Amino acid sequence: MGKPMTGIVLQDWKSGRLGEFGNPPGIPPMLFMFRHDVYRVLMAEAARRGIPIEYGKRFVDAKEGDDGVTAHFADGTTAEGDILIGADGIRSAVRSLIDPDAPGPRYAGLISFGALIKEPGIPSTEGKMNMPFGKKGFFGYQVFDDDTSVWFANFPQAEPMTPAQVRETKPEEWLRILTEAYAADRTPAAQLMAATRPDELIVVGPMENMPRVPAWSKGRMVLVGDSVHAPSSSSGQGASLAIESAIELARCLRDQPYAEAFATYEKNRRPRVEKVIAATNRKNSAKAAGPVMRIINAWAIKTFSKLAKPEKMAWVFHHRVDWDSPAAPGLGNVPEDARIIGPK
Description:
Layout: E1 3-5, E2 7-11, E3 17-22, E4 30-32, H1 35-48, E5 59-64, E6 69-73, E7 78-81, E8 84-86, H2 93-98, E9 106-118, E10 128-132, E11 138-143, E12 148-156, H3 163-168, H4 171-182, H5 189-194, E13 202-209, E14 217-218, E15 221-223, H6 226-229, H7 238-255, H8 258-287, H9 291-307, H10 314-317
Parallel strand pairs: 2-10, 8-15
Antiparallel strand pairs: 1-4, 2-3, 5-6, 6-7, 9-12, 9-13, 11-12, 14-15
Helix pairs in contact: 7-8
């Protein structure tokens, strides 16, 4: 599953090369994949193992007892278990139960769109993702050898919009707005958008990330994935971080009582995920920059790309959860400078 992505080429609005970043030495090529493909594989495996999946349920509350926890749903039904894992996304209801004062998602000043299209009309990018900083928005595209292409656009929007508000505008209208906005750039952006049918447009919505979440667990409840550490899509690491955390949590629960397991899980994961989020926030600032800052950013990227050492970014891709070793508090395989992140 997935298609290889061997490097990222940063460009200006004229398709001029600002810098290229490949995989760090010793790291296999990144794989580009859509989340719906990941969901399909995970759901098929759940079905194979006989794990039931309930649809049409909206979680509203949880009550803990001496021997377990009961989840309550809006339709009046309940479910019981030893623990409750809140894998319920960036607007997590479980997070609010664990800590009513927990922060919510923070808007990054961008709306995200994308598409997978056939016969884009431009040649293969030979395994590389091109990312131009356009005059009015950031853009990314890759053309595969099978004559399909993916593209995404991070469109600046000063006023925050909810996902529902973004989707009130029809895909046809968004395509018109985007095509006009990127038309002045000397990149394939407008051409790829013109080749996109409205039913192919993926309206992702506002780009958001999670500020530092003080409490990851309480009693028999614990958070995992976007509910506790959602980077914006600029990181390219959201799904990866969620999968890593799920495996680490499972390992801790395998080896320790739940209260100790929750503490070990948080200690092992917090440094890594907060370092990724901090790096992503800097990327989003560059994408939402105005005309003057775009010039400054282009100069900075050119300079950085000449001085950067690929091995410095190996920590992002080289993380491994040692499933076979006993769970114990550690540092999450994150460099020294990532051990303390955010306010204390």
